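Hi team, as promised in this morning's meeting, here are the two structures we talked about. I've kept the exact order from the run log so nobody has to guess. The first one is mostly here for context; it's the second one we should focus on when we meet again. Sequence first, then the predicted structure tokens.
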Amino acid sequence: MPLYPTPLAQLIEQLKKLPGVGKKTAERFAFKIIEWPEKEQKKLASTLEDIHKTLVKCPQCGCFQQEDICPFCHRTFPSKTLCVIASAKEAYAIEHTKTFHGYYHVLGCLLSPLEGKTPEHLHLHKLKERILTLEIEELILALDPTLEGDATSLYLHEFFASMSLKITRLALGLPLGSSLDFIDEGTLTQAFQGRLSFAAR
């Protein structure tokens, strides 16, 4: 790396930690940020400093909430459908489709033995409790079409097979190896509308 002043070099290194941001992009972002008015720089710094205090996860579904109200759990319409997702960010991608009108449940990770992610990390006892409490009739497995996503979906299907529950997954057509939050709204809408009863791919 060029002989950047320490503060600039540190900023570039932090920006490189963002997904999809390499050295050149991080440098471009860093130089843009230092061109901002001081007021905007301080606003960004303040937002980052406070976000871990002001942005919390709902203890029920795992999505983000503000203060004590989760917009996903406090639905204004009755629903017997629960959508299982890997991370909170995917709820927003799904909401943009205006297709799904049920509850969400964030697993927090996908099964990945190489990364040490085992079934214990999925906390399925909590998911089972929500299914019973909410009297869920359909469980939608909206997980990434990757090896980890498919393995997790298969495990969930087997785990809940004994329950009186319809288990579905998003329709085929999603690019293999992709992430739901990168799928365009049209494709994701069709995947929800055409969801099928679960079957191993």
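And here is the second protein, the one for discussion:
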Amino acid sequence: MRIRTMLPHALLLMVLTTLGCATSSPLAHMEQPAAGLPVFGSLPALSVFQEEAGVAEPYSETSWSGVGWTALMYIPNRILDILDVVRAKLRLGPGFAIGAQATSVTHVYVGTYFTVFIGLPGPRQRKMPKLPVGVETRTGAQLSKADVTLEGGLGPDYGRWEFALSFQLAIIGADLGLDPYEFWDFLAGLATYDPAGDDF
């Protein structure tokens, strides 16, 4: 008699419990994970965070790894930047030549030489440093943008804003230059700004 009285109550309790679990389960509110994202990325709280703040890239320039790399390369970059400002090469080898440049707009050169050089090679115009020794050859003539010269070895490779003067007399020569833009790049680099785009 007691079992018959309790059975309807037990059934009613089971139905209510089942309905309650179905409507309040966290799984019912979870979004399907996007392709390529881990399952935990679909939790509602994380989804809201991602929408508001965006997903941070682990190795972005603003991350701790980017800050650490900038700090690690700060001194080497500043040394390379200041070396870019000046060109001072001694050349040894046969040839007769003279040349001058006041930025790339005004450039004059005539002559020929085949030399080895030592010294500061001038603006890198790239990330990797230039070697302080090497082989350099140049033959022909140039007047501003009219350039009929052939270069070999490492070549003089003048900067766009560089002021330079060079000569080769019999077996000895020199190549001297100064680049104000590279000096600006050095000053800006003190504040970790890189207008020349040549920092590591």
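Starting points for discussion:
Strands lie at 86-102, 106-121, 133-143, 146-147, 150-153, 163-178.
The first helix runs from residue 2 to 24.
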